[in-house]
């Protein structure tokens, strides 16, 4: 992966819809309460983008950290109920800080709290998409965060980088900007290797990027550089590019807009998925697993055809017809996911058999495929 200049990437000056994500360490000044001066600086830049005709959605971490400061907790608690309480307290201060600053520029804001369930249910997903798009058309700045007050460990986004990427899919953004406490993505951890070099340009979804990332998250957030690289790959599914840059650099958003060499630019290297397949790809939790043989993997990847029972070697989990399942290669890597046409017991009975045996094995036949290609997305 050779370092390239940003100028070889797509022209960001034509972008008209941005999602900007700000991390906890930036918003809360390493946990010591909200950094109002820095928030004011970002809002000034966001207001300038809005004035230039760019629709902006802000995804901001910081509710838990702000709640910790208000409650005078020095250490992030481990107990879920304490984290939820801190989020409830901190969300008040976080949203008020943004609202007060945006009002100085005559801009309205809207608080949007999302959970995993909001995006896993198809109807609620469509409702969230419609609401966000309507707010943007009205010139409102949506301030999005995970609803930590009700989210559980089992059904939550792994971090707000993931949430920001899913929001980019929802609003069909041109650009996702992830502001962090690092200057961008480096070829090795700059905290441990002073000679580390910034990677200015790469393809979102390049497997080599994950190898370069350290997995350690900060004390006040759940993500790390790995989560940002994975978020860029998610955002690329709807055609969005991603910039990872330092939120501590003055005028960083203006530099991004003016195409200056700042941070790491990750360009989408694939054709955007259709809306329904974007929803399928966004699902964080699958109800079961289908293990495929090598031939089935080749067919799915090579021709985009439906998944037939004959290509399935094993079935795991308890799922019903119409629920989302993962499709795994023989080495355990997830290659696809989709809406299954048969429940777990039925899938176990017909696995490994050709479709013309389904009626004999089950006594009936609904569909010849386990997963139809229209309900299947490659990962």
Task: For the structure shown, list the relevant keywords.
alpha/beta; Carbamate kinase; Archaeosine Trna-guanine Transglycosylase, Chain: A, domain 4; five-stranded mixed beta sheet; 14 helices; 18% strand
Describe the protein's architecture and organization.
This protein has 379 residues and is an alpha/beta fold. The protein has two domains: 13-277, Carbamate kinase, CATH 3.40.1160; 286-378, Roll (Archaeosine Trna-guanine Transglycosylase, Chain: A, domain 4). Helices cover 37% and strands 18% of the residues. The protein is built from 14 helices and 13 strands. It has helices at 24-27, 36-51, 63-70, 80-103, 116-120, 122-137, 160-171, 207-212, 225-236, 252-257, 275-282, 294-303, 344-350, 358-362, and strands spanning 17-22, 55-60, 109-114, 141-146, 175-180, 201-203, 241-246, 264-267, 288-292, 312-317, 324-328, 334-339, 376-378. The strands form two sheets. It has an eight-stranded mixed beta sheet with strand order 3-4-2-1-5-7-8-6, sandwiched between helices. The protein has a five-stranded mixed beta sheet with strand order 10-9-11-12-13, sandwiched between helices. Strand 11 and strand 12 (334-339) form a beta hairpin. Helix 2 crosses helix 4 (80-103). It is elongated and about 70 Å long.
């Amino acid at each position: 992966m050779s370092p390239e200049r940003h100028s070889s990437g797509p022209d960001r000056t034509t972008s008209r819809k941005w999602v900007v994500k700000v991390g906890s360490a930036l918003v809360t000044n390493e946990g010591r309460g909200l950094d109002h001066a820095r928030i004011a600086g970002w809002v000034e830049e966001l207001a300038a983008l809005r004035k230039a005709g760019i629709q902006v959605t802000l995804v901001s971490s910081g509710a838990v950290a702000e709640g910790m400061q208000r409650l005078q907790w020095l250490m992030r608690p481990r107990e879920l109920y304490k984290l939820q309480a801190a989020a409830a307290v901190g969300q008040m201060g976080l949203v008020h800080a943004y609202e007060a600053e945006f009002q100085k520029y005559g801009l309205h804001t809207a608080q949007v709290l999302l959970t995993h369930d909001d995006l896993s249910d198809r109807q609620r997903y469509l409702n969230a998409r419609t609401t966000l798009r309507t707010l943007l058309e009205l010139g409102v700045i949506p301030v999005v965060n995970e609803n930590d007050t009700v989210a559980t460990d089992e059904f939550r986004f792994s971090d707000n980088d993931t949430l920001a990427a899913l929001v980019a899919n929802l609003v069909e953004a041109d650009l996702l900007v992830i502001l962090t406490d690092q200057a961008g993505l480096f070829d090795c951890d700059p905290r441990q290797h002073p000679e580390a070099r910034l990677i200015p340009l790469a393809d979102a979804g390049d497997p080599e990027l994950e190898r370069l990332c350290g997995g350690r998250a900060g004390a006040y957030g759940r993500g790390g550089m790995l989560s940002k690289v994975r978020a860029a790959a998610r955002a690329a599914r709807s055609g969005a590019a991603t910039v990872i840059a330092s939120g501590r650099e003055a005028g960083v958003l203006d530099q991004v807009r003016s195409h200056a060499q700042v941070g790491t630019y990750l360009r989408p290297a694939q054709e955007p998925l259709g809306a329904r397949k974007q929803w399928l790809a966004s699902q964080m939790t699958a109800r079961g697993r289908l293990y495929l043989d090598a031939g089935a993997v080749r067919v799915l990847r090579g021709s985009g055809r439906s998944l037939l029972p004959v290509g399935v070697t094993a079935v795991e989990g308890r799922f019903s017809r119409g629920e989302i399942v993962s499709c795994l290669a023989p080495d355990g890597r997830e290659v696809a996911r989709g809406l299954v046409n048969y429940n777990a017991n039925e899938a176990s009975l017909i696995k490994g058999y050709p479709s013309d045996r389904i009626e004999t094995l089950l006594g009936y036949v609904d569909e010849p495929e386990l997963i139809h290609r229209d309900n299947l997305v490659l990962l």
